[in-house]
Design a protein that fits this description.
The protein is an all-alpha fold and 291 residues long. It has helices spanning 2-11, 17-36, 42-66, 68-73, 89-110, 112-127, 138-146, 148-158, 163-184, 188-194, 199-203, 205-229, 234-252, 262-290.
Length: 291
Amino acid sequence: MFRKIGIFLQMIKFEHTLFALPFAFMGSLLGSVAINGSFPSWAQIGWVLLAMFGARSAAMGLNRLIDRVSDKKNPRTAGRAIPAGLLKISEVVLFIVISFVLLFWAAAELNPLAMKLLPVAVVMLVLYSYTKRFTWLCHVVLGFTVALAPLGGWVAVTGHVDWTAMVFFITIAFWVAGFDIIYSCQDVEFDAKEGLYSIPVRFGVSRSLKIAQAFHIITAAGFIALLLLLHLGWWYIVGILVALIILFYEHHIVSPKDLSRLQTSFFTMNGTLSIVVFCFTLIDLAVHVYR
């Protein structure tokens, strides 16, 4: 049983939750302090955590199920659970259904707007795995799908969406889209051969890395906009400066002629960035709330 659980966790890349979960909590904190003047309750945080787990597990399960044929052909992904025969399709389908049930349960416990927006989230979670079959904008679709986490965190504790929430949403969307472009550079030859779409296939690796840089400039601008819109303080500024250094380093260690450090750029740098931004934002908001 424990081995099977480990395989499921590996299938959904549980460790990659560090990318989106800190920003989901950050959305909850920013929204609650901005609207209510206080931190969200522990119950709200718990439901946000359950919603995140359900949404991400369903999304990754769907992605692995939908991509199982191409994953088997790609040497980099042939060892994944489904093509390697470690999990049956029926087991993955059941896992996806349970994950969606957890997501629905959490949304129902939060507020009416969370329930109303749930169909949008479900459509996005299902759609993005298909987009690389017909558009090179698949990275942007993925970005907007993952960015539902911080937007969902905001909605969970406020019950509404405003322009500040949308700025945060766009900021994270382009952050994810940018690093997904970098990540997909390693599969450019396979994707082209299989007729799959991506920005690296469409524009080449060199131009794609520049597009990723442009996307991350939008991310930087978004973090600065949040500083001004929410009147955040010095702790937040320090966190954003560290994040910008991480983004610069992420692009510095990857070049069209050398993708050997791509895994460091994708996993280590982006996981660190989300945790850093969340922690410094938490400190900044705590200073504001408890002063």
